[in-house]
């Protein structure tokens, strides 16, 4: 369930990039869940043609997905009995990714170089492209040869930064069968998948198909086209049939659309966040060792929110560390010492029989706690900071006087701070009446106020505030640009005195807001995606 | 014949006691309260500072180690018991000056039995360590610390375009 400000922020991003009409359709889907075309038309009061075009834009840019539910449709959209209707769902996560393109570009360019980065940029800009479109674009922009482009695309697919697009209208089975199967095999309580997750799980091609790129497929397709011309007298029927079959397979291959694989990119950013967290808490050497562990275990990671990395031996970790020239001076003992430090409580690296694995959950939780504590300290003050840390660690209800004793604060100040935090949704409060009758303490009983941090609710509250803050930053930037339109329209040589000052100020405002947005987006990923 | 004693839990009411009796810690508040029933903030801060210094010297310390060190040194005239030091160490943890961890018997915890609760100071002197706690992304912008964020809407009385905190933040 997307929060209120999450929806507002997503709609703002779509409005900025695709206009009001597309944003209206997107908002309709975000607020109402999956809808058919007719339902969207009814709710948005736009013509079917306009809605269809808006949906095409959203699908092209991977912000929406079409699907058909296997179970029979009923209710307001029921057509003929048993007739499956195509529904559309907004992909909130992919909408958020649109502000991260520069981060994704950075990851790809650093690993695979400038030409791959340029090709990747095209996929981000256009959402999805066929091989021919990629080749044509590269040829027009940088005059790259077809072979070079195909080579770069191959590298991107092999590194899993680019994937084959999902099926356009997959058939989604009912949820019960899927949940039961997962629960049976895991023997633990399984959280049901959201509709978005179920749709994407079915729409995604198999792992082999998803990352299978055949270079020169278009060249082969061109050759096939030559074969399809009037046959010579030597070609018999059997051969024609064989050619037709391979022709169809190749057409499917050639027509495959390619897009950025956000899952892999998110995984890299998660790794980066883990390394940064360790660097702050320990030192550069520990961060280097963790980085090496992440690199060595990367291939085995199959989802973004993996709890632990695969176990690695000390030798494997050391070999990975010294692969990088900058780390040649690190000794085996130094690596072992770093691992021992990381294994000390709080245990960011688990040890088991001479093997080491990273506990991603612990690192992520530590980073999240740091972020929330920072907010509490700045917003409510030092007393609130101590109260929050006490209740967060305790994980249970605590009475006001006991809290005051633990943090060595006056009871009046403690009470005031607790109420402020409760009003902003950072704490839960319960009233306990002891003794007397149920009608109140005036009949001989006393009442106590008990306080608690609910970690799950708190994370949701903070995430919603982050979406709100991100939206505000965008709106403020738009306001500043609007206020200084005349100065922006002046040619550089005409900007003098107060106009130049305004222009310089606006440049600084833009830099500050953009860098704050990037930093805030890292925090949003920490709470929403990692 | 009688004397007035302060009840820290109910300072508004006057309490009297015969002079030959000593009030219990429930009334006086114990070692952390002065004769007027107020929290002795200065004394508490001194004890905290001393404990932190000891832990930094030892790198890792248990409650018993800290207690023993102060008993032998006789630094404090006040009769501080084990539970007093436990409260102080708890407060240092909440101040984020020390970490409360369980020993795993390895490395720097080698001398401490596995599973024993101990305290480790944050090493703010190491290369690359920040002198002050890191300010998070939300806390470094106006909305993150705004007391009016719940009333803020794009077109409302409190909005990003009219916000005075934003105005101040964007003053160059």
Number of helices of chain B: 5
Distance between the termini of chain B: 69 Å
Superfamily at the CATH H level of the largest domain in chain B?
Answer: Winged helix-like DNA-binding domain superfamily/Winged helix DNA-binding domain
DSSP strand count of chain A: 12
Query: Could you name the ranges of chain B where pLDDT drops below 50 across 5 or more consecutive residues?
Result: 127-131
Biggest β-sheet description of chain A: 4 strands, mixed
First-last Cα distance of chain A: 17 Å
Q: Overall pLDDT of chain A, averaged?
A: 85
Strand content of chain B: 5-15%
Oligomeric form of this entry? heterodimer
Strand order of the largest sheet of chain A: 1-3-2-5
GO molecular function (chain A): single-stranded DNA binding
Subcellular location (chain A): Nucleus
Domain RNA polymerase III Rpc82 C -terminal (chain A): 154-366
Family (chain A): Belongs to the eukaryotic RPC3/POLR3C RNA polymerase subunit family.
What does this structure look like?
- The complex is a heterodimer of chains A (530) and B (172).
- By secondary structure, chain A is of the alpha+beta class.
- Chain A has helices spanning 4-18, 20-32, 37-44, 48-60, 92-97, 101-112, 114-126, 131-142, 146-158, 175-186, 195-203, 207-210, 217-227, 237-255, 262-281, 284-297, 314-323, 332-343, 360-380, 382-394, 400-407, 411-423, 455-483, 485-489, 498-528, and strands at 35-36, 64-69, 86-90, 162-164, 171-172, 258-260, 312-313, 349-352, 355-358, 398-399, 428-434, 446-452.
- In chain A, the strands form 4 sheets. Chain A has a 4-stranded mixed β-sheet.
- In chain A, a hairpin with a 2-residue loop joins strand 8 and strand 9.
- In chain A, helix 13 (217-227) runs antiparallel to helix 14 and helix 23 runs antiparallel to helix 25.
- Chain A is globular and about 80 Å long.
- In chain A, 33% of the residues are buried.
- Chain B has 3 domains: 1-38, no CATH class; 40-134, Arc Repressor Mutant, subunit A; 137-171, no CATH class.
- Helices cover 30% and strands 12% of the residues of chain B.
- Chain B starts with a strand and ends with a helix.
- With 172 residues, chain B is an alpha+beta fold.
- In chain B, the strands form 2 sheets. A 3-stranded antiparallel β-sheet of chain B has the order 3-5-4.
- Chain B has helices at 25-28, 41-58, 63-73, 82-94, 164-169, and strands spanning 2-5, 15-18, 60-61, 98-102, 117-121.
- Chain B is built from 5 helices and 5 strands, in the order ββααβααββα.
């Amino acid at each position: 369930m997307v929060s209120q400000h999450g929806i507002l922020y997503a709609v703002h991003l779509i409005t900025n990039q695709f206009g009001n009409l597309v944003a209206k359709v997107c908002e309709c889907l975000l607020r109402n869940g999956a809808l058919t075309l007719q339902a969207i038309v009814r709710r948005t009061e736009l013509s079917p043609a306009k809605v269809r075009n808006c949906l095409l834009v959203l699908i092209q840019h991977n912000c929406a997905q079409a699907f058909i539910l296997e179970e029979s449709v009923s209710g307001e959209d029921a057509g003929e009995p048993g007739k499956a209707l195509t529904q559309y769902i907004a992909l909130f996560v992919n909408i958020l990714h649109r502000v991260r393109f520069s981060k994704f570009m950075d990851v790809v360019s650093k690993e695979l170089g400038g030409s791959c980065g340029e090709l990747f940029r095209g996929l981000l800009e256009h959402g999805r492209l066929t091989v021919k479109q990629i080749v044509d674009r590269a040829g027009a922009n940088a005059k790259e040869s077809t072979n070079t482009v195909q080579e770069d695309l191959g590298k991107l697919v092999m590194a899993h930064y680019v994937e084959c697009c999902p099926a356009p209208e997959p058939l989604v089975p009912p949820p019960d069968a899927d949940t039961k199967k997962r629960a049976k095999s895991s023997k633990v309580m399984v959280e049901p998948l959201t509709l978005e997750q179920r749709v994407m799980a079915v729409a995604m091609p198999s792992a082999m198909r998803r990352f299978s790129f055949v270079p020169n497929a278009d060249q082969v397709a061109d050759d096939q086209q030559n074969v399809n011309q009037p046959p010579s007298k030597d070609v018999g029927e059997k051969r024609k049939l064989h050619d037709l079959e391979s022709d169809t397979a190749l057409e499917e291959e050639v027509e495959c659309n390619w897009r950025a694989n956000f899952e892999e990119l998110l995984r890299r950013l998660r790794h980066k966040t883990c390394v940064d967290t360790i660097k702050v808490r320990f030192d550069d050497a520990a961060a280097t060792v963790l980085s090496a562990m992440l690199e060595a275990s990367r291939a085995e990671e199959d989802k973004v929110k993996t709890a632990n990395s695969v176990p690695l031996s000390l030798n494997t970790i050391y070999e990975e560390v010294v692969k990088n020239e900058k780390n040649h001076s690190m000794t085996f003992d130094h690596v072992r010492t770093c691992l021992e430090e990381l294994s000390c409580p709080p245990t960011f690296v688990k040890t088991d029989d001479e093997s080491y694995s990273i506990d991603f959950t612990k690192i992520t939780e530590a980073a999240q706690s740091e972020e929330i504590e920072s907010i509490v300290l700045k917003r409510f003050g030092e007393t609130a900071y101590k109260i929050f840390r006490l209740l967060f660690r305790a994980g249970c209800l605590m009475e006001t006087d006991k809290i005051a004793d633990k943090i060595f604060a006056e009871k009046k100040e403690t009470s005031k701070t607790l109420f402020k935090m409760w009003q902003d949704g950072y704490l839960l409060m319960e009233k306990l009446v002891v003794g007397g009758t149920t009608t109140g303490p005036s009949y001989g009983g006393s009442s106590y106020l008990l306080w608690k941090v609910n970690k799950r609710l708190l994370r949701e509250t903070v995430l919603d505030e982050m979406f709100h803050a991100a939206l505000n930053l965008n709106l403020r930037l738009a306001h500043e640009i609007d206020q200084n339109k005349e100065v922006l329209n002046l040619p550089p040589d005409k900007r003098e005195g107060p106009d130049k000052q305004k222009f310089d100020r606006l440049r600084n405002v833009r830099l500050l807001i953009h860098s704050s947005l990037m930093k805030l987006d890292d925090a949003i990923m920490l709470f929403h995606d990692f | 014949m009688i004397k007035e004693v302060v009840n820290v839990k109910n300072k508004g009411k006057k309490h009297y006691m015969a002079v030959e009796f000593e009030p219990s810690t429930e009334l006086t508040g114990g070692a952390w309260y002065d004769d007027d029933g107020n929290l002795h903030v200065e004394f508490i801060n001194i004890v905290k500072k001393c404990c932190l210094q000891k832990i930094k010297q030892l790198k890792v310390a248990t409650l018993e180690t800290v207690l023993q060190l102060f008993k032998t040194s006789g630094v404090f005239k006040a009769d501080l018991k084990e539970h007093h030091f436990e409260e102080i160490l708890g407060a240092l943890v909440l101040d984020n000056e020390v970490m409360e961890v369980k020993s795993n018997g390895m490395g720097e915890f080698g001398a401490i039995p596995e599973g024993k609760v101990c305290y480790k100071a944050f090493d703010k002197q190491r290369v690359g360590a920040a002198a002050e706690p890191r300010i998070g992304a939300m806390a470094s912008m106006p909305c993150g610390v705004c007391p009016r964020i719940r009333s803020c809407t794009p077109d409302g009385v409190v909005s990003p375009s009219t916000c005075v905190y934003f105005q101040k933040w964007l003053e160059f």
